UniProtKB/TrEMBL annotation:
InterPro entries: NAD(P)-bd_dom_sf, Sc_DH/Rdtase_CS, SDR_fam, SDR_subfam_1. PROSITE patterns: ADH_SHORT. NCBIfam families: PRK12826.1-3, SDR_subfam_1. Signal peptide: none annotated. It holds the Pfam family adh_short_C2. It comes from Citricoccus parietis. It comes from the Bacteria. PANTHER family: DEHYDROGENASES, SHORT CHAIN, ESTRADIOL 17-BETA-DEHYDROGENASE 8-RELATED. This is Mycofactocin-coupled SDR family oxidoreductase. Keywords: NAD, Oxidoreductase.
Amino acid sequence: MSDELEGKVAFITGAARGQGRAHAVKLASMGADIVAVDIAGPVADFLPYPAATPDDLVETVRLVEELDRRILGVEADVRDRDALKGAADRAVAELGSLDIVVANAGICEPAKWQDISQQSWQDTIDINLTGVWNTITATAQHLIDGGRGGAIVITSSYAGKKVQPMMIHYTASKHALVGLTRGFAIELGPHNIRVNSVHPGAVATPMGGGDTVDQIEASTRENPKVNQMGQAFLEPGWMEPEAIANAVAFLVSPASATITSEHLSVDQGMQYF
Ligand SMILES: NC(=O)c1ccc[n+]([C@@H]2O[C@H](COP(=O)([O-])OP(=O)(O)OC[C@H]3O[C@@H](n4cnc5c(N)ncnc54)[C@H](O)[C@@H]3O)[C@@H](O)[C@H]2O)c1
């Protein structure tokens, strides 16, 4: 526990479980109050892993309250900008400010290009890219109005720097987030609002559960040499969500006060293999 983020409010999407929940708990442990946004329900039937549930979001709320921090749990879809705007307005009214945004919600479908449906392409772009645009445009004015700077972290991926084989839609959406990070960093810089991206490697979250691994194996069967890509230098080659939360904590803390428009890999070296 520390008090580095005492008096700050952090708006986190995809916070019902996985990395988003880890970010909520980590930032709360540093003193921040939290707005935890998640669809908390089915997103798309082409996804090979189970959807988050309202109970998952309730558990995030419980974990943050256990740390004696305030939290608003909000069921909202990042494709719905008005809902995000409503959550941001409510956060300022009830918690006093908005200082930190972590645009983390995302989906991932392993598939060969011929098997990516038009719906899957559209949903992946709408959630992973436009959802981040919605999250920042719904919140940034509150950070500006607060007049004390702020920090925004965008969750991209290893697939936003290199390529995730057999996930062209996912890879395209995560690469686009690099441009989004740079653009917002320029325009929000005069307000001392920093904008950076994190690029996780393999993280043990429900996204990798269900049939995801089988679907990755099936999609690379005709071209197995791509499985040699993205090997981690470190053991065991995958990470707990808290590893990414530590990087997010750094990027929103005073320790990174001069860092903006940076793209921080937390991938055990995967991007270089
Ligand atoms: N797990 C990995 O190996 C990995 C690696 C690199 C990057 N990422 C990225 O990290 C982020 C977090 O993923 P995770 O691993 O915690 O997966 P996860 O599936 O456990 O969590 C994602 C959360 O986002 C929510 N979400 C999905 N679509 C939403 C929408 N339209 N509106 C609101 N909420 C929505 C889900 O309900 C879920 O709670 C994603 O952007 C993902 O692409 C994951």
